[in-house]
Amino acid sequence: MEIKRLNQNETKDFINLIEIFKEVFENDFQTPDPQHLSALLSNPNFIVFVVRMNDKVIGGLTVYVLPQYYNIKPLAYIYDVGIAPDFQGKGMGKALIKEVCSFCKANGFDEAYVEAESDDIEAVNFYRKTDFTNEMNAIHFTYSFTDKI
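^ thats the sequence. predicted structure below, dont judge the formating
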């Protein structure tokens, strides 16, 4: 198993990760074009880590870097975390979180955080098995800007 941060030339691996996210999160979002994904990978405020097994992407996560005004150190918002179903329960997700936290610590981040919906018991239980510092309950409000028919 290898955990690696993607660069802007590794769009194919990012697309493979998005396909895993679609399966894990049971969504059918259209995958953006490779140029858009390459631009995201070159953005210093967006980070993608993948887990590879035998040169095949089997999972990963995305991170948004959030500057703060209370602290000069940024926050890492871990947005999506997914491991292909055939590889879940083997410690790869925990290793991925640990690697990303090590990266954040080494690169001067204040902290990293991830959200899980309270009714997603599998996700909540997964994060509770990681080496987290604090657990907080919150209510999430969404403001959509798409036309509704």
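The longest strand covers residues 56-66.
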